Amino acid sequence: MSDNISSLSLLHGSSEPTLKSYTIGQLLNQQAAHFPTKEAVIFPTEGARYTYQELNLRVQTVSRALIAHGVKAGDRIGVFCGNCVGYVEVFLAATRIGAITVLLNNAYSTTECLNVLRITGCSLLFTATHIGQRDLTSCLRVLKASLDGDKLPALKQIILLKTDGDISKQFQSFESFLGQSSTIPDSTLREIEQKVQPDQTCTFQFTSGTTGAPKIAMLTHRNVISNAHSIGHRLLLSEKDVVCCPYPLFHISGLVIGLLSSLTYGAAIVYPSPTFDPSAVLHEVVREKCTGLHGVPTIFIALLERHRQLKTSPIHVRTGLIGGAPIPAALLKEMHKAFGFEDLTVAYGMTETSPISFMSRSAEQPNDVVVVHTDILPHTFAKIIDSTGSIVPRGIRGELCIAGSGVQKGYYQNPEKTCEALKTDPSGVVWMHTGDEAVMDTHGHCVITGRIKDIIIRGAENIYPAEIEEELNKHRAISQSCVVGVKHETLGEEVAAFLQGTPGQPRPSSAEIIEWLQMSLGAQKAPAWVFWLGDGDVPVVFPITDSGKIKRNEMANLGNRLVGKYREGTKHGGEVNGVSNSVTCT
């Protein structure tokens, strides 16, 4: 690489291992032949344990039932359920025959479910009477009325993967649905699945929507298989591994990082409970002798807290992956100590890239600094650009863009957002504009400095929340933080910090926090407002998405309400309802 190119913020991933080009159905057939008696999926709460051969046969049965009910390639099949073996069966069976799975967020309200089913035109919906502790009875009643009326013209049938209560009698059970599978011969199934191509869309994935309405990313068989293969390769997965996956299956992480990366290498995947339960995760890691454990920071924070409460014996896990949100250096240290990770990786990615672009060994991370992404995945490319689209020199911040085998086809029925996100360069390469700000050092190592939309503009100065959060999270009295911008009449915005205290540690005053921050960041980045979770009108916990990300828009809205209330109530600094005006802004 020439000097002028190597000085630019541009990275090319390796071309090895060879890019995989097959469908999900072909993957399952292949693995059933290679590992027929090896366990593939384990769902302890259901007592379900399938070998690769058993899983493949079961999925073939579900595929034939789908065909018998009129499902064709390109049809949309909705799933709205907690983690269960039926979820895996429906996903693998639908994609096997070229249908597109629409995986609804478990937290969706009834109105959101109706909107998603209407927009995507789902012909079938697989759901349950409960998702964890959440009772779906009222939601099912509305869905039944919509099915019988004309609000969801494409929806033909609702099938219950799990039945419980009187409401179940109004819907077809999963086992009853499978009864028609015998009407479809194996030859018909083989003929249909042979027509499915790697570049066909296999799933609609909803972006997390932490700062707005979610978009629908269209991902192909090639997208998810290639990414799953690269993830498993980096984790050194094999048929000897048993991976514990607390992620929800509706999320790209549960689907690709969990299910598909394990299946690609003949490993077993354990889903401990229908919804996240830290006790269940710890129990299954020990009982199943898991060699892998994945999660986002909020998942691991909860696991560590429960581990301390239960006074569990030390756990030894070979590998795992953490990503999805900023990762405090202190958290990585605690995880290594509690779970004995030999090779924990820190990852960067997004739904639209299927999802992972960078995976780096946590043991190689510098101490007490932001996470550095040192290793780009094979068949992946990264660049950092300025507002004109030009690649910036290394050391200069800009927007991170990703290209390669994992990049989505686009957003479903949203050409405007697709054009904003996907741009083709003069050489014909399609780049996903992530919306993340990043900087690349002289070695090609990448640091994510925050979401571009999250940047706080105080006066004419850009302030980066991730930078402040990284410092705050180093304080022994702070277990987690969220920094947002709140409105200011003359400055435009000023900095507000929400802090979650560390159990057993005395809480410092706001002045002490500010003084401590100023030592490393300077006065200009110190928060004007400090909020402690659980004080006054401040909630006890951060609101998070089901994928574990803090809902920053909610925190910013809360900050503006609290600051407005404070300003109305007093003209002087001090603490009111848990709010501290920590510095004077002029």
Automatic annotation (TrEMBL):
InterPro entries: AMP-bd_C (IPR025110), AMP-bd_C_sf (IPR045851), AMP-binding_CS (IPR020845), AMP-dep_synth/lig_dom (IPR000873), ANL_N_sf (IPR042099). GO terms for biological process: fatty acid metabolic process. Residues 29-412 form the AMP-dependent synthetase/ligase domain. One of its GO terms (molecular function) is medium-chain fatty acid-CoA ligase activity. Residues 467-533 form the AMP-binding enzyme C-terminal domain. This is AMP-binding enzyme. It comes from Aspergillus parasiticus.
